[in-house]
Amino acid sequence: MNIVKQSVWRAALAGTAFVALMGAAWAQDYNQAPMLDPLVADGTLPPVADRLGANPRIVAPVSEVGVYGGTFRGGMVGGNDRNLLLKFTGYEPLLAWDRDWTGAVIPNVAESYAVNADSTRFTFTLRDGMHWSDGTPFTADDIAFFIQDILPDPLLFPSKPTWLLVDGELPGIEITSPTEFTIYWSKPNGLFISNVASVFGTQLTMLNKAYCSQFLPSYNPQAEAIAAAAGAADWSEHMVNMCGVGIENIQRWRNPDRPTIEAFLITEPYEAGATRVAFARNPWYWKVDTASNQLPYIDAATFSVNADGQTVILGVLAGEIDFEARHTTTAANLPVYVEGQEAGNFHIVTRARPISNAMSVGFNLTSADPVKREIFGARDFRIAMSHAIDRQAMIDVLYFGVGEPKQIAPIAGSVVANDRLANQYLDYDTDLANRMLDEMGLDQRGSNGLRLMPDGRPLVVSINAIPALGNAVDVGELLVQYWQKVGIDARLVSMDRTRFFEEIRASQHDVALWPGTSGGIDALLNPEDYMPFSEGSIFGVKWGQYRVGVAGGEAPPAYLQDQWNLYEQIKASADPERQLALFQQILEISAEQFYGLGISSAQPSFAVVSNRLGNVPDGTPSAWLYPDPGPENPEQFYIKP
Amino acid sequence: MTAPVPPSDGADLLDRQTAAGSLHAAGQWALIWHKFRRHKVAYASLILVGLIYLVALFAEALAPSDPGKFDPRYTFAPPQAISLFAPDGAGGTRFVPHVTGFDITLDQQSFRRVFVPDPDQIIPIGLFVRGDPYRMWGLFDTDLHLIGPLDPGQPMFLLGADRLGRDLLSRIIHGTRVSMSIGLVGVGLSLFIGMVLGGVSGYYGGLTDRAIQRVIEFIRSIPTIPLWLGLAAAMPKEWPPLQVYFAILVILSLVGWTEIARVVRGRFLSLRTEDFVIAARLDGVSEYRLIMTHMMPSLYSHIIAAITLAIPNMILAETALSFLGLGLQPPIVSWGVLLQDTQNLRAITQAPWLFAPGVVVVVAVLALNFLGDGLRDAADPYEK
Amino acid sequence: MLRYIVQRLLGMIPAMFAISLLTFVIIQLPPGDFASTYAAQLAETGVTVDDAAMQALRDRYGLGDGLMVQYAKWVGGILRGDFGISFEWNQPVNQLIWQRMGMTALISVMTLLVMWIISLPIGIYSAVFKYSVTDYIASVLGFLGMATPNFLVAIVLLYISSMWFGVSVGGLLSPDYVKAPLSWGKLVDFLSHAWIPVFVLGTSGTAALIRVMRANLLDELHKPYVETARAKGLSETRLILRYPVRVAINPFISTVGWVLPALISGELIVSTVLNLPTAGPLLLQALKSQDMYLAGALILLSGGLVLIGTLVSDVLLALSDPRIRLS
């Protein structure tokens, strides 16, 4: 029922002209939250139609038109959970993903866009009369402020976001009118529109020029003095403190004075020692529902700050948290939630996880140890190790039998799926594994009965795993037992994140365990699991570093250079069909090379939703590039009276 | 001191009179032992502690299975009870020590296995059965286990299974070795530092004494957990588990020695003025000999009491560190590592048997405390 | 008296200095620094921090300086009231520790008082009725509290209080009361949350206090002045409460010196489980992410709290017993 409704609306939204028409037709009779009525009456706020502008975005409610009022209650964990807030209220890119994440983009801040034939120039049209939360107009100048004044600054952006770089070149911008601008490069950027709709794209609409420029010396000669007066080390530190600047800066959730275009405005900042973070509705929010009600429905949102996930679970069970989809929605906790549903008055909805594998097992192909590099680099070695694992048993233990034995690959059924990459070398066959290991020259055994390396040293394979990360340590413990059975002296090393990444950056690890990443349509944007691509490619870090230009990188072998070249062709293409075809060529090389081992297809995740919270969809995806619930439009969640 | 003595009959009284007669000639240890034995709780605790250390010593043989052996079929299997008799099929019963098997269904909605005991599935168990192979004390290979299912393939989870279907009882038994040895070795280390510094402090007195006392006061004034946390966080992460184990021992001992030093110093101070020490010194006995052969023996009883009381603190400290994720790490199994599994609502609501290691910790710590208490009381046999 | 207090205060200076040195060593020990932690964090969301950016970060926070320079800067700053900056929170440490330390002190002192209130009468009773059934039960219960790991009890109690009694989960106040002005309702709400940490922390130390009180009182009960008083026909209750208890209570008060550090330690664990707005969770997180100045300030102040607690108890003792001032 809901699904039908949704798809009707997707069809409706596909034509931007149609949306513009509807907006204009309804401009006279918008409704607003009752709490805003007195503010309009006493002149603090202009009437709702004036605040919305000529062409607000129309958001189709997931299930039904909601009612105004109420407070949304969430739970955060730890001092570094800024991205929970980003996912809840920070997803306001120029163009947005559709709710089902088919890969299509729909209008959001921009009402329409156009791309030239060779994907070098991207022209966006903004909504006429859209405002920041302080009532000032949102214009092309604000976008240009980021691209011209903030992005190039070495203090504010010492590392440039890679999605904005084309061959090291930063974008330029041309403003044709307050509502129209063009972003361009000298070379093609075929993935730009997808990136704009991803979580990264929220960067472009984050900064209000009028407010934030006061902290910049180029706009305000007093900037240094203001920074010093506020106790900051320099103007850039003060700028970050006041405006946040980057999408992941924690400071953006601190300053209630900073104008935003988001549905909720911070009222109790996320700072150290805070036991909760709170938001209130943005009266200038520029979206309406299908019945001309200004969004959001909900008046306010609060998030408790928890030291540990267990109190979040307890909060859900006790009916104190309305929505949780981030810290505790693991298979291990599912039985607890299922059992507590009735008493806690909540229900569970599924969330697809389009990731390449439940856990990727990355042998370090660029190991700092030359002998190990040779061994790990041998494809037969990795194939043997793959045959040494009983995946079905692991799935039964770790994932309660949910999931299929798979290698690291885009998920089955997606437009980027590759059957060979996903399904090769999956059989559990210790004889075969032993034979292959013997044949490749690892047939010498030490006094403990385990294999020696060709130089006579014992072949010790450390498996690095982070305890805090899902069940990585459990996976590691099982891998140790399987690999010991074929004579490999595998050892589990559990370590914290910092150490984990330090070893990876230095390429000192043997095997690292990390959940698979982009395995859906986002594989095109982030193919790090399918070839050494960045530092996130834990199986070929040195090559990844070479590609992104980090010191210490090593030049790639020929097959990898081929993959990189193919990827550059994807970026140069504006044709989605051709991009997918090229990507299949990349995946064929990945299948040939068999870079890393996978265990199981990813298990679906879930979200826990209070029964009093309406309009939360079921079955939508969950990923970093699709920062749920952001693309599900939390502004149309409502509290049932 | 009047220890609680149960009402005695005539024979007992006679025994005690005879014993009392022999006490006049008894040595120090005999006196302590005599006094200690009258403290019933402490005496029982001594036996219990002895048993626990035996478990630690023979962990491999006592554990029904390998502590790391996982089984996909039995994740979160509840404990099974041992029954001695089973129906013989002809309406009567026969003697078959056994546990009852499970009917296992997978609850698709909640990703959970539901275990229903099935009385028809009888899994015979026995003593000294063959099971998972192991290497005893690194000396010889065997697969003999004190208790286990006759068919090693069948499930026997006397205390239930954990999230990977590992036998909790076997894990607790193996954890006993790590946890109890952390206590013992850690205290040994503390003892060494404490004896040396406490002895020096008490024997020489004066400025040395004051300096060492300042250090002790200082260390005791620092809240220990932040200190341990800091030190544990400082541990290089590439250390193998065994090295981490020893590092944690050292960390715990760095704080633990102060109490022992305090006791040693106090005794030294009072012994210094005892006639026999002065006599020995006037006799020209060397300082080393004076301390080691004359003073130390009268300290042993106090020291034993002090270390007995320090062991439980070490054990609790290890559980705390492991709980905070800064202690021992898998695959090493300690009670603290096992208790990490209880810190979630899953364990509380659906697998309460995971709290069994907690009960074991409480019992062990209680026993050690009562034992230490009794020893302390008995340490001064000449006191009333 | 004033002279005594001043003397004690002066004595605290070298102790604080020593604690600061030890603290600094501890926060410097872990390999790596915040820059590497930060890079690791960003790596999770696919952002690469290149070496230049790492260097910029290190320069900004002075992480590249020599150890002595860093220590001098740190202590120098503290003397001026500046505890440095929390890297993770990007805020001056000053802004975030005081309220949390205050809460830690509040919980610790509350627990201390509760422990005294419980252990004093039981200790007296156990001494007077030595080896009675009650004496045994008290010591068994006390030992049981001591033997049970704090965190084990904490999460079970938290579950019971929120699922069975409907107390809001975690924290020390319900969300509605956090910003509310002081009122009876707020106090009741506070107590309905605070009893768990107080109980959990209290159980672990009460046994020891009971034994101290019992032992002290036993020593006194055999002294001749007690016999004299008894011979004079004083009622037993008055006799015990008036004289021996008053003498035995002095060493009892001086237990602050070792009870307080244990409480602050235990608080750290318990508050992490219970999600209390105290120093514990903040410190744990800071240690894990190498947020060194925040961790340093919290360890330093924990030490300071103990010194102050000891000082207060010593002053109380000195007030009640003039002999102590002279010795």
Q: Helical content of chain A, roughly? A: 25-40%
Approximate strand percentage of chain A: 15-25%
Please state the average pLDDT score of chain A. 89
Cα gyration radius of chain C (Å) = 24 Å
CATH class of the largest domain in chain C: Mainly Alpha
CATH superfamily of the largest domain in chain A: Periplasmic binding protein-like II
Largest sheet composition of chain C: 2 strands, antiparallel
* Distance separating the two termini of chain C: 13 Å
Low-confidence stretches of chain C: none
For the largest beta sheet of chain C, what order do the strands appear in spatially?
1-2
Cα-atom Rg of chain A, whole angstroms?
Answer: 26 Å
For this structure, the CATH topology of the largest domain in chain A is D-Maltodextrin-Binding Protein, domain 2
CATH level-two architecture of the largest domain in chain A? 3-Layer(aba) Sandwich
Strand percent estimate of chain C = under 5%
Task: Report how far the terminal alpha carbons of chain A are from each other.
Answer: 23 Å
CATH architecture of the largest domain in chain C: Orthogonal Bundle
CATH fold field value of the largest domain in chain C: MetI-like fold
Our count of domains of chain A comes out at: 2
Q: Let me know the number of strands of chain C.
A: 2
Short recap of the structure:
The complex is a heterotrimer of chains A (641), B (384) and C (327). Chain B is α+β, with helices and mostly antiparallel strands and 384 residues long. Chain B contains 14 helices and 4 strands.
Describe the protein's topology.
The complex is a heterotrimer of chains A (about 650), B (about 375) and C (about 325).
Chain A (H helix, E strand, L loop, with lengths): L1 H13 L1 H11 L10 H5 L6 H5 L4 E2 L12 E7 L4 H8 L5 E3 L7 E3 L2 E6 L5 E6 L13 H11 L21 E6 L2 E5 L7 H6 L11 H4 L10 H7 L5 H9 L20 E5 L7 E6 L5 E2 L11 E7 L2 H9 L5 E2 L9 H11 L1 E6 L8 E4 L6 H8 L1 H9 L3 H9 L19 H5 L6 H10 L20 E6 L6 H14 L3 E6 L2 H9 L5 E4 L26 H8 L9 H15 L3 H18 L3 E2 L6 E6 L2 E2 L23 E2 L2
Parallel strand pairs in A: 1-11, 2-12, 16-17, 16-18
Antiparallel strand pairs in A: 3-4, 5-6, 6-8, 7-8, 9-10, 10-12, 13-20, 14-20, 15-18, 15-19, 21-22
Helix pairs in contact in A: 9-10, 14-17, 21-22
Chain B lengths: L9 H14 L4 H10 L2 H18 L1 H4 L19 E6 L5 E15 L4 E25 L3 E10 L18 H37 L1 H16 L2 H10 L7 H32 L2 H8 L4 H9 L4 H24 L11 H6 L4 H6 L5 H23 L6
Antiparallel strand pairs in B: 1-2, 2-3, 3-4
Helix pairs in contact in B: 2-14, 3-5, 3-14, 5-6, 5-8, 5-11, 6-8, 7-8, 8-11, 9-10, 11-14
Chain C lengths: L1 H27 L5 H11 L6 H11 L5 H13 L5 E2 L4 E2 H36 L4 H15 L2 H14 L11 H4 L5 H38 L2 H8 L4 H7 L1 H10 L2 H19 L4 H10 L3 H29 L1 H5 L1
Antiparallel strand pairs in C: 1-2
Helix pairs in contact in C: 1-15, 2-3, 5-6, 5-9, 5-13, 5-15, 6-9, 7-9, 7-13, 9-12, 9-13, 13-14, 13-15, 14-15
